[in-house]
Amino acid sequence: MGLFSNSSDFFGLDIGTSAIRAVQMRGWKNKVLVRYGSLDIDPKISISDSNADLQKLGVAIKQLITQCGINTTNVAVGLPSNRTFLTVVDIERLSSQELDKTIRLQADSLIPTPLAESKIDWAILGDSPKESTKIEILLGSISNGFVEKRLDLLESIGLNVIAFEPESLALTRSLLSTGSTDAELILDMGSSATDLIITLNDAPRLIRSIPTGTDTLIKSAMQNLGIDEKQAQQFVFKFGMSKDKLEGQILGSISGSIEVLASEIEKSIKFFTARYAGINLSKIIVTGGVSTLPEFPLYLANKFGVGVEIGNSWRNVSFPTSQQDDLLKISNKFSVAAGLA
User: How far is Cα 316 from Cα 174, in angstroms, rounded to an integer?
Assistant: First the structure.
């Protein structure tokens, strides 16, 4: 899914809540990392629709491009999960033309925004696991207003947008092994929310955004321990879910928020296994803020009885071995940008 031109010379741009990231690669099947970089931004700018803040965001993006030495104006841009809607639906087996017409007729009752005010796109995933006469479709939508504002912003700084793509699809492309046939769960925690994607045969089958992010954990620590934000941030990411550090006080302060997240993960796994009978989850891949939370991967492994691995944004990318240590240190932050690239 995504509106692609035929350009092979472009870079991926991830406009996050607290940072923007860019990745440029070369090659078609064998991707080689060429340039990458990130720039912290004020979260107020990234979530605002005011013209003044959009101008500031444009200045920051230009600064990042210069800083990275990116030499193309063609860009593939991520669409944030809180602005996009993605769902898997079953549709009757029809010709391409009839299918397009049927999806557009049904989309109005499936997407949260009015059809006339939305851009929609879809992709065939395969046979429906429920009914032999139907096929599975991944349907996506986003409001025209958001896409147009973002397009205007990027064109105003001289960029040529060749693709808009939901962040969740970019994540699957960077974090899964090419040609993966297993059912895998990707968990990407940002500052304000956690994206949960369950994939099968390399494609998303369940996509959710859970409103628990690193900010939630930090606020929990602040409130329960009576400490300031900076201290809470340091403690949460230094001691995490360890029972024997600081007498387990940090674990105690964030456990409520972690349990809420775990409960949503459990519901999602149950929904997936009910739809895809006989298919069990093979592993959980964690990335984003949660991947650096001490003891969290172990907690997930024990709770759900599956292997947990830390996501590697560069697993499908070639780069000099001399860069390996530096790239792995920042891997948890570049999953979307690498997937877009």
Answer: 7
Q: What is the CATH number of the domain that holds 118?
A: 3.30.1490.300
Q: Are residues 75 and 224 in the same domain?
A: no
Q: What is the pLDDT along the chain (341 residues), one digit of tens a residue?
A: 333 334 468 999 999 988 999 999 998 778 999 999 999 999 899 888 889 999 999 999 999 999 999 999 999 999 998 899 999 999 999 988 899 899 988 898 999 989 999 999 999 999 999 999 999 999 999 999 999 999 999 999 999 999 999 999 999 999 998 777 889 999 999 888 999 999 999 899 999 999 999 999 999 999 999 999 999 999 999 999 998 888 889 999 999 999 999 999 999 999 999 999 999 999 999 999 888 899 999 999 999 999 999 999 999 999 999 999 999 999 999 999 999 99
331: which 2 tokens? 């891997």
Burial letters for 125-138: b for 16+ Cβ neighbours within 10 Å, e otherwise? beebbeeeebbbbb
Residues of the domain holding 253: 194-310
